[in-house]
Amino acid sequence: MGERKAKKGLGGLTPEKKKLLKQLIMQKAAEDMKKKQEEEAAEKLKIVIAKIGPLTIDGLGAAQLEAKVKELYKLVCALEEEKFDWEVKIRRQDYELNELTIKVNDIKGKFVKPVLKKVAKPSNKLAKFDKNKSKGGFRDNLKSTGKDKFALEEEAPKEKPDFAKDAPAEAAPAEEAPAEEEAAEEEEEEEEEEEEE
Fold first, then answer.
1. How far is CA 164 from CA 47, 56, 157, 173, in A?
2. CA dist., res. 192 & res. 186, Å (int)
3. Distance between CA atoms of 2 and 47, rounded to whole angstroms?
4. CA Rg value for the chain
5. Distance between CA atoms of residues 173 and 179, nearest Å
6. Selected residue with higher pLDDT from 160 and 55
7. Which tens digit of pLDDT belongs to each residue from 86-118?
8. How many CB atoms lie under 10 A from the CB of residue 139?
9. pTM for this model (two decimals)
10. What is the pLDDT confidence band of residue 133, given thresholds at 50, 70 and 90?
């Protein structure tokens, strides 16, 4: 009873056996893929040989080599034209297939959601979409000094000289009162503009 059995997971396999099995499966898959690629390459070579034929240039003179090069050039041009035609045809068929799929979905009332890529959005790019935050970032970070910037400093009344004592005392404060009202109105307008921004 002192011996401990290796803990078996799902399927009754120990982790070591699972790892070995995974390695064998991966090895088999790699061999199959390599074999499939070799078969495709051999098949492609057969098609090329059947279409073009073997290149025999042994014992040809300069004029015959030149004629062979021109012949091969014409063949390459013809094949390139055929390749281009097939590419255009496939592209057109893909487009038509896509259009028909859209029409079918419209008729059925089904709409296919496009597959979207997940993209990391840095916070500074998202900040411009944040509506709660005001635009005056610098102003928001300023600290209040406790003083109102539009407040008028009150000075102690000075004694009037002898020649001014005869003048009415209420004339000067009457002129200052409209100025104070204008300053208060301007302050309210500025606050409203800041709130709108």
1. 119, 127, 14, 15
2. 10
3. 68
4. 45
5. 10
6. 55
7. 999 999 999 999 999 988 888 887 666 777 888
8. 10
9. 0.34
10. low
* Contact in structure between 197 and 135 (CB atoms under 8 Å): yes
- The model's confidence at residue 132, banded by pLDDT at 50, 70 and 90, is low
The two most distant CA atoms of the chain are separated, in Å, by 135
Going from N- to C-terminal start, the domains of the chain cover 18-54, 55-108
Rounded CA gap, 154 and 148, in Å? 13
Per-residue HEC secondary structure of the chain comes to CCCCCCCCCHHHCCHHHHHHHHHHHHHHHHHHHHHHHHHHHHHHHHHHHHHHCCCCCCCCCHHHHHHHHHHHHHHHHHHHHHHHHHHHHHHHHHHHHHHHHHHHHHHHCCCCCCCCCCCCCCHHHHHCCCCCCCCCHHHHCCCCCCCCCCCCCCCCCCCCCHHHCCCCCCHHHHHHHHHHHHHHHHHHHHHHHHHHC
Give the length of the chain: 197
